[in-house]
Each structure stands twice: as C-alpha cells, then as structure tokens.
Amino acid sequence: MKQGKLIGLSGGLIVILLTIIIFNNREINILDEKTAQAGQYALDDESRATLKAIEALEDLVGEYLKTDDRDTINQCVMAFVRKDRYGYDLKSLSRFIWSRYTGSLNTETGVNQRDDKVLYDEAEDLVSQVGSFVDPVMGQEIDFIHMIAVIDLELTDTGDSQVEEDAYDALFSWIGDLKTFVLDTGVYVDESGNVTESDINEFVRETLGSDFSSFSGSDMRADFDGILIAKTMKENELLLSQALKTYYTEGQSRNRYTGFLSEFESEDDFVEKVRFGVMVELPVSEEGSKYDGFAEDYDGMTQLMDMFINKAGLVVEPETEELVLDGFIQYILGHAKSETNSEELISLP
Questions:
Q1: Highest mean pLDDT: which range of 40-44, 77-81, 195-199
Q2: What CA–CA distance (Å, rounded) separates 119 from 12?
Q3: CA–CA distances in Å: residue 309 to residues 62, 274, 302, 312, 337
C-alpha cells in the first residue's frame, strides 16, 4: 500500500537554527565533475543547487517534526515543493482536482501556515532555491516541480484497486498531458480547415515531445522519471534526495522509456491503457472488462478535467483522437527501441 496521512507537529525557532547548523556542516555528496566516478554522471550547477535545497528541506522537516520516518519526511517535502502549482486552491479547477486525489500540504501532513509559521517560512525560503534540473545523461531539462508532483501522486492512494489506482495515477500525469495534446491537435485541425490523415500524422510527429508542444519533452521526462523514481523510493525506502541522486547520477534515465513500458503487463496492456485513459467510451470500459466498476466514475473525472483543458468546448473527432493516440504509442515504442538497440545515446526531443 502507499503512504497514508500524517499528523502535524509544532516546533519553534530553535529547531530551525539547529537545522541550519546541521545542513551547513553536513557533507553534501552530490556528484559534480570532480567527484563523479567511472560510470557515474555529474549534475550541473543548477541541478546540484536544486538537490541541495531538497536535502535541506528534508533536514528541516525531520528536525521540526522530530522524526526520521522517511515517508513522513518525503510527504511533507514534496507537499511543500509542489504546493504553489499542485496544491489546494478552490479558484483553480486543475489544482482542486489534483488535491482531490493527492491532498494538500495541510491534509497530507497536518502542517499549516498559521500554526507552523516557523517551519512554513523557512521551507518557503528553501523551496525558492529549487530551480531547473537537467538530466546529466542526455543534457535535457526536466520540469522538476511537475516531476515532484508525479512522484507524490505515485506514492499516494488514489483508488480502491490497483487497476483503478493505476488509471487515476496516469490520468493526473501522462494521460492528462496526452489529453491536452489531443485537444491541441483538434485545434490544429479546426484552424487548418481541410486536412488529411497524413497532415494530422505529420503534425503529431513534428509536435509531440517538442519544446513548443503542450506535451513537451520536459513534461514527458518529468512524468516517466517521476513514475520510476517513486518506484525506487518504495522498493528501497529512500528519501527523495537519495532517490533523485541515485536515478540521475547512475544514469538510469537513459532507460526511461523502457522503464516506463516495464510498468505495464505487456505492449498490448500499454496500448489498452492509453486508449482507455483518453477514450473511456471504447469497449475496454464495458461490463466484464478490468475497468468495469469504476469506468463511469473515471469518465466523470475526465469530463471535469476536460472542462479545464477544453475551455472553448472544441469537439475533437474520434478519428483525430485515434491518430494522436497511435502516434503517441509509436513515439514511446520507438524511443524504447532506440534505448535497447543502440549502443550510442540518442538525444530524444
């Protein structure tokens, strides 16, 4: 099972001072070009600064809450890091939907700005030091805050069964991004007028995973790395900083696409979940399937998400959706193949 809710504790200024002293005197073993060994990858300056800020947050939370429990520390740290983009906010439909399944800083940890002002203020300062993060293997940027939100999602109960949980985890990470890209393709079709199937396929090939796509390479890497890092944290009982350091400095990101596909039972299972995730009305959601029993609730949540994504109410034709999903499936399978068949690293978009 995934981690549960926590009970917040109070602390004082002395805790913060002790944390600062501990952090300033502790050995930060984050690899740079001078310390990286053979087979390891060095982080750039901004990525090391981001990882140091995460370690400082872990120290701060542990001291303030007087705990060394990894789940407790990880929950609180990730809630702080993601709260401004993926925290509870009734004024934002997307943030409300997200917090409905992952919780907010207060509901997840019991920490709130009024009662825990000392912790809150110091944590805010550390979160402001969380900047960009670059994959040291490929030299590509990763949407770090988005990745932290995905890790938090993966480590939180979101369904009553594993199948249901997997579906909702995907919906709020890569399936949600894919649904947005489906809409973008629909906008392209609507604005272009008379387009052919070949035109749509070319648009998908040129846009998916690009820097100007709603489902950019930075988003995709954040989604897939987040899933794999969360798995590492669960299996090895690691703090967030430890898992990040292990994943990136040991070069595990060079197999992110094959690692992502390994989360599915088979290639057919991957294809089925892609199609169910975006097009709930397909036969896979009918009675007797593994999605029977929650497909209706899932469909309701996707419609709520579509209200946020598709504010203009654009209708995307099923044929267009099919072409986008087929393009996404081939994109992932092709990149996974390049990881397993090529001796040289290929810089993917």
A1: 195-199
A2: 8
A3: 38, 18, 10, 9, 32
Which residue stretches of 237-294 are H helix? 240-249, 256-261, 267-278
CA atoms within 13 A on the CB side of 321: 18
List phi, psi (to 5°) of 300.
Answer: -65, -40
Grouping H, G, I as helix, E, B as strand and the rest as coil, residue 141 is strand
Average pLDDT over residues 243-248: 96
Scan for tokens 């709520």, then name that residue.
Answer: 304
CB 150 within 8 A of CB 226: yes
Cα separations in angstroms, 348 against 207, 257, 335: 13, 11, 8
Q: Which residues contact 162 (CB under 8 A, 6 or more apart)?
A: none
d(CA 279, CA 302): 9
Q: Kindly give the interhelix angle for 174-192 and 267-278, rounded to the nearest 10 degrees.
A: 60
User: Which pTM value belongs to this model?
Assistant: 0.83
| CA-based end-to-end distance of the chain | 35
What is the per-residue pLDDT across 279-296, written as a single tens digit (0 to 9) for each? 876 666 666 778 877 888
Distances (CA, A) of 3 to 43, 70, 228: 30, 10, 17
Q: What are phi and psi of 254, to 5 degrees?
A: -70, -10
What values do phi and psi take at 289, rounded to 5?
A: -85, 170
Q: Where are the beta strands (DSSP E) in the chain?
A: 133-135, 140-142
